[in-house]
Design brief:
- By secondary structure, the chain is mainly β.
- It has one domain: Protein of unknown function DUF192 (Jelly Rolls, Sandwich), CATH 2.60.120.
- The chain has one helix and eight strands; from the N terminus they run βββαβββββ.
- The strands form two sheets. The protein has a five-stranded mixed beta sheet, with no helix packed on it.
Length: 112
Amino acid sequence: MIRNITKKKVLMPKSAIMRSYFQKSTGLMLRTKVEKALVFPYGAPKKMAIHMFLVFVPIDIIFLNDKNRVVEIAENIIPFSFYLSKNKASTFIELPKGAAHGSRVGDLIKIN
């Protein structure tokens, strides 16, 4: 489950953590809908590059620091595009389009 603690709102009831290189490189590829949020932990803060190749639905992406505070939000990232975060992050979360609406930089996110 992905919850915005600051806003007291569930962003997505189901989630999965992408740990392996294969999981991180494929993510939502070849899926036609987002059934659960995908969490991509990377540890050391860095700018994140996300490709949407073979992803068939638009998504929202929330970027977090090492304390799970939002440092950036990218909404409505379209299929077959590429996104480079403007800020350094330790983790990012891929969500269905619209799920990040209302979340703001500085919000605390809880990942279960």
